[in-house]
Amino acid sequence: MPVRLPAPRPGRRAALGLSALAASSALLVACSTPAEEETPEAPAPAASLTSYPVTVDSCGTEVTLEESPERVVAIKSSAIEMVLALGAGDRLVGTGFADGPVPADLTEAATDLPVLSDEVPAAEVVLETEPDLVYAGWESNFSAEGAGERGMLAELGVATYVSPAACKDPAYQPDRLSFEDVFAEITEVASLLGVPEAAEELVAAQQTELDAVPADDRGLTALWYSSGTDVPYVGAGIGAPQMILDAVGLENVAAEVEDTWTSFGWEEVVAADPDVIVLVDATWNSAEQKRELLATNAATANLEAVREESYLEIPFPATEAGVRNVAATAELAEQLAALDLTP
Predict the structure, then answer these.
(1) How many beta carbons lie within 10 A of that of residue 283, not counting itself?
(2) What is the mean pLDDT of residues 51-56?
(3) C-alpha–C-alpha distance, residues 34 and 162, integer Å
(4) For the chain, what is the largest distance between any 2 Cα atoms, rounded to a whole number of angstroms?
(5) pLDDT reading at 283 higher than 70
(6) 259: left (phi over 0), alpha (psi -120 to 50) or beta
(7) What's the pLDDT score for residue 173?
(8) What is the model's pTM?
């Protein structure tokens, strides 16, 4: 259903949202904050180069912003880093569910970021920041148990946006994620924030870096090992892992699976016998833990890639569609070139 968001008025969301949430699980109860209660002071409006209103289709939800959002909540590293990379970090009034530290080039911009939660922040916590826009890396971040359902937030005058690559409905997912899709998200988010020139500069720089990445021509195969112990969870054929493997010239052994990530039994790993294994380094399942598991697992210990330690490593925040993908691709290409392998 199309959702047109009115221009925000100071304190309106606090009045509608916080008291209703405190009263019951029916978030739209008619109540209000006392008139004398102070509300957080909004940042000074930034200069906008976008002509508003701006309307986008976000995973099937049509969202319209009447003016530049000045109070933004970002959930997941991909969303947080997108806002920072577009030079709008001063608009972040809350962040949540970060997957790890930001890359070195964004460290300064990320200084003193307001953290609402290490997990998905609750709707009450999100609404306390009086956001104009909540930008999520996963569609599932918007739920009654999470940051709030999108319809409820819209009723309270809060715009919502989901990274297009993370839409749950296949009708809204890219058939096979490409760097053009990633650049399109950068451009679309910049249009919402009113900073289109920042997107132009960022996309141009990333395209130049991507064009310089050499594709390996040795015909090597690879397993993208994301997580899991009893059953590995691996990069499949349509998401960011496939996009990155294609760019560096590796053949994904799970490419035939029409999904972003998939369960892939150890017997399937052994049958595929990949030349290279990409280890995703996550706080909850590090690359080092994966090395130890592969070396001690009877099913995988004798794989040549394991015996020769033919590993590439990538940080988890770089494995989802976003501003880190190009740099991660260049880094993987360098790691791959350093491996003395033949198929």
Answers:
(1) 11
(2) 94
(3) 33
(4) 73
(5) yes
(6) beta
(7) 81
(8) 0.85
